[in-house]
Specification:
With 69 residues, the chain is mainly alpha-helical. It is built from 4 helices and 2 strands, in the order αββααα. It has one domain: Orthogonal Bundle (Arc Repressor Mutant, subunit A), CATH 1.10.10. Helix 2 packs across helix 4. The longest helix has 15 residues.
Length: 69
């Protein structure tokens, strides 16, 4: 899933005030990063938001790691 993350993220001014979201949802990338930083596991996030897939969370996690490396 090298650059496929670009297909996972959408920006639309009419959805969540233009914040980047997972395509097809209203779940912000920043929310996922926040949940991960507080120690939520992938499984806990998916349990709370079943429209997400592990691949979504993994891609967001990898984007965050590569942007700070």
């Amino acid at each position: 899933m090298e650059n496929n993350w670009q297909n996972l993220i959408s920006i639309n001014p009419d959805i969540r005030f233009g914040k980047p979201v997972i395509t097809g949802t209203r779940i912000c990338v920043s929310d996922i990063l926040s949940w991960l930083s507080t120690g939520m596991s992938f499984e806990e996030i998916i349990e709370d938001f079943p429209e997400l897939k592990k691949e979504h969370i993994l891609a967001i996690s990898n984007i965050n790691k590569s942007s700070i490396s």
